């Protein structure tokens, strides 16, 4: 796309593909079975930034790639477009914390339900909370699914203009106070965070997305399927060890107590590191020290991910500390 200065705007697409060892391209390990897989594409951006338009562009090109492919594994793929409209959610759900939380739960449930074999899920929503993106990243890893984040980088002032126009034309839009609140709370994706990687940032001026780069990151064009290495904490296995749930609850509770006791002893300090007794494990607290409700929420998320897993008792503490450090770094 030529801009007013005559430069090629398509070159300004910022493509951040930080794989960080998450994917490797190689022969699928199906070993004689039919190779099947799924992928998750998270769109993120300010309200009224054009996420649905970008989703439709991506879906159109991916449909064409699928129909033109000669690979059986690609021909089987189906694309699912999930957004507020498809789930029957109105803009009013963002007017209160309770209804917004319910809306996120509805979106998460829909994504998990569709994220099965041979499906490409395009999650066309703001996805503006990094904790929510991390949650969906964990869900994708649990089912060994490739994923990426497409950041629709329309600036706030342009989104405000588009939102005002939509309200004027009665074609959608958010109430002004809701719009400003969502913009204020938006947490921009960071390609250095593994749950936001690979990250593709699309400037408003660019007419097209980097379709080939996104396809290559998720599907692959070399005849070999992208394979995901699941985290140790997300590989589902039957919980067979006696007393596992008790140990899961007790061990995570002990770690949270360790953090809160340290915070009480170091009141007023910004961030810090504490060592887990009798281990070499280090918990690195962020500058904005997490509150007890935040810590308990992370604990519940970890327990939910591992309730049906078969982790050894000795590994629970190590993995939970890693989980917390990952969350704090976000």
UniProtKB/TrEMBL annotation:
Keyword ATP-binding among UniProt keywords: yes
Protein name, entry field: Chromatin associated protein KTI12
Assigned protein family: Belongs to the KTI12 family.
Key words, A-Z: ATP-binding, Nucleotide-binding
Gene3D superfamilies: P-loop containing nucleotide triphosphate hydrolases
Residues in the signal sequence: none
One Pfam family matching this protein: KTI12
Gene Ontology MF: a single term: ATP binding
Domain of life: Eukaryota
Recorded coiled-coil stretches: none
PANTHER family: PTHR12435
